[in-house]
Design a protein that fits this description.
Blueprint lengths: L1 H4 L12 H11 L3 E4 L8 H12 L4 E6 L4 H9 L4 E4 L4 H12 L4 E2 L1 H16 L13 H11 L4 H8 L3 H15 L4 H10 L9
Parallel strand pairs: 1-2, 2-3, 3-4
Helix pairs in contact: 2-3, 7-9, 7-10, 8-9
């Protein structure tokens, strides 16, 4: 209802989850999608990277979510989102973000911009990535970890590394055992904490 009242914006569809969003993009070809992140069936990062940006490059994605943590922000931007707003954004801020991404610029809320600058500053001050893999990880387990941090799914990692999905699962189980990690979100956090991944520059 709010979007429909904003000047210069026409709402052509609304989806309940990522799968429905992808289907609507295919049928309606919108200029911009306002994408939530935590959704059933297909989350926002997967919908953005695998389905919308890959298959419909003319459609820009602006994330609109309650989550502003690094584990949500950086994978979303790496997936191809050009904008990132939290749900306390006002109408004017949403309009600016939509117009910005249509012009080829980034549509980031001031708080998100500050967080990106803080992380870039931290990366500059922080130690260089270790020359040896931490916690006894093998080179292949490191590769898998970095691809998880990029937001890739197991089948995508398998294609990238030219191995089977079962092999990828084995590597993930091994690296989780060695590092004490329990899930992919913790793996992303671990990769940043260890200096293995740098925040995206733009």
């Amino acid at each position: 209802m709010l979007l429909g009242l904003l000047p210069g914006i026409e709402v052509v569809g609304a989806a309940g989850d990522g799968e429905e969003a992808v289907a609507l993009v295919a049928g309606l070809a919108p200029d911009v999608v306002l994408m939530d992140l935590r959704m059933p069936r297909c989350d926002g990062v997967e919908a953005t990277r695998r389905r919308i940006r890959a298959e419909h490059p003319g459609t820009q994605v602006v994330v609109l979510t309650t989550f502003a943590d690094d584990e949500s922000l950086f994978p979303a931007l790496a997936a191809g989102a050009r904008g990132y707003l939290t749900k306390d954004a006002g109408g004017d801020e949403i309009v600016r973000a939509v117009h910005s991404v249509l012009c080829g610029d980034a549509g980031l809320s001031p708080g998100i911009q500050r967080r990106l600058l803080e992380r870039l500053s931290e990366a500059e001050r922080g130690p260089a990535a270790p020359s040896e893999p931490p916690d006894g990880l093998t080179a292949r387990e490191m590769e898998v970890l970095l691809l998880i941090a990029e937001g890739l799914s197991n089948p995508e990692i398998a294609r990238r590394l030219h191995v089977s999905t079962a092999t990828v699962k084995t590597h993930i189980n091994n690296l989780f055992t060695k590092t004490g990690l329990k899930d992919r979100a913790q793996a992303v956090r671990y990769a940043y904490a260890k200096g293995l991944v740098r925040p995206p520059a733009g």
